[in-house]
């Protein structure tokens, strides 16, 4: 095997390396797609059969090698029949990913911002309590595991339905990871800070606690007042109106299409909130 690999790479160094890399990439994408579906069990079975075929061929077990060869030959046809829905879905996803709108490709966060804004404003008007955390660079797996797995596409209707009172998932936080709802009814760490105002409840304390531990962005709708708040690290933005909410969501979630300097963005936001608080007579 080692001699064969050596001859393979020495005779065609560039093309063989590219060939191997492409094969590994295809295998990687198959595993990523199959994760969380019954197709993953199929891939595990295929890997075991291929490994057994290699071992039997190496050891000279001719009968077993022949039987495994037949299994592999007919297994391809059987897999197409058994997993036809999954294969069709994979081809549809491939077509959408290749030919989807270029703007959406550069800015996948735009739909997320729209859905979050619509859901938060709807729940704010009706005083529906909500707690939504969006994963950033630091993974939130340990918090996702405390909730109910969903792995669902994001829509404002789904977010609203999750937090409707007296439904199974309305308690706890929704966690968004990679532009999908990873889980609902998750437990977040409560902050022990003595600087948190007494009028803020458990949702705000949980959002601040997560901000202290990770770089996640957390959105809160108060069940008592309907006010909207945003927490990022140790920054708490309270009582946001629609315009303020939109600006902060774009600041934290938008993938910028232009190479605008980060300091200019922060200055624009600071000037906006300074003007808003001045008009209201705030500090």
Automatic annotation (TrEMBL):
Q: Does the keyword Transport apply?
A: no
Residue ranges of the TM segments = 14-32, 39-60, 66-83
The record's InterPro entries line, in alphabetical order, gives: C-di-AMP_synthase (IPR014046), CdaA (IPR034701), CdaA_N (IPR045585), DisA (IPR050338), DNA_integrity_DisA_N_sf (IPR036888), DNA_integrity_scan_DisA_N (IPR003390)
Q: Which Gene3D superfamilies does its entry note?
A: DNA integrity scanning protein, DisA, N-terminal domain
EC code: 2.7.7.85
Q: Molecular function terms in GO for this entry?
A: adenylate cyclase activity; ATP binding; diadenylate cyclase activity
Start and end of every DAC domain? 84-242
Top class in the EC scheme: transferase
- List the catalysed reactions: 2 ATP = 3',3'-c-di-AMP + 2 diphosphate
- Database matches in PROSITE patterns: DAC
One Pfam family hit: DAC
Q: What processes does the entry annotate via GO biological process terms?
A: cAMP biosynthetic process
- Give a yes or no for keyword Signal in this entry: no
Family per similarity comment: Belongs to the adenylate cyclase family. DacA/CdaA subfamily.
**Role description:** Catalyzes the condensation of 2 ATP molecules into cyclic di-AMP (c-di-AMP), a second messenger used to regulate differing processes in different bacteria.
Oligomeric form and interacting partners: Probably a homodimer.
- Under which name does UniProt file this protein? Diadenylate cyclase
Q: Which gene encodes it?
A: dacA
């Amino acid at each position: 095997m080692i001699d064969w690999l050596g001859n393979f790479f020495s005779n065609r160094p560039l093309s063989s390396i590219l060939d191997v890399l492409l094969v590994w990439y295809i295998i990687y994408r198959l595993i990523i797609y199959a994760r969380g579906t019954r197709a993953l069990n199929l891939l595990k079975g295929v890997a075991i059969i291929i490994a057994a075929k290699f071992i039997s061929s190496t050891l000279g077990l001719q009968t077993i090698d022949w039987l495994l060869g037949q299994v592999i030959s007919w297994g391809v046809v059987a897999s197409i029949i058994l997993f036809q829905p999954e294969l069709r879905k994979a081809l549809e996803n491939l077509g959408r990913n290749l030919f989807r709108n270029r703007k959406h490709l550069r800015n996948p966060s735009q739909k997320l911002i729209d859905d979050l804004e619509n859901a938060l404003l709807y729940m704010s008007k009706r005083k529906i309590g909500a707690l939504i955390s969006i994963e950033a660079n630091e993974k939130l797996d340990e918090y996702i595991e405390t909730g109910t797995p969903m792995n669902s596409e994001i829509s404002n209707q789904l977010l609203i339905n999750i937090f409707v009172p007296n439904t199974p998932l309305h308690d706890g936080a929704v966690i968004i990871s990679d532009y999908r709802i990873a889980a609902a009814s998750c437990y977040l760490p409560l902050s022990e800070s003595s600087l948190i105002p007494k009028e803020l409840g458990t949702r705000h304390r949980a959002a601040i606690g997560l901000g202290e531990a990770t770089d996640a962005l957390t959105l809160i709708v108060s069940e008592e007042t309907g006010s909207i708040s945003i927490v990022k690290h140790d920054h708490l933005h309270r009582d946001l109106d629609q315009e303020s909410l939109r600006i902060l969501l774009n600041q934290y979630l938008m993938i910028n299409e232009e190479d605008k300097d980060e300091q200019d963005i922060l200055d624009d936001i600071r000037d906006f909130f300074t003007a808003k608080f001045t008009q209201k007579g705030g500090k």
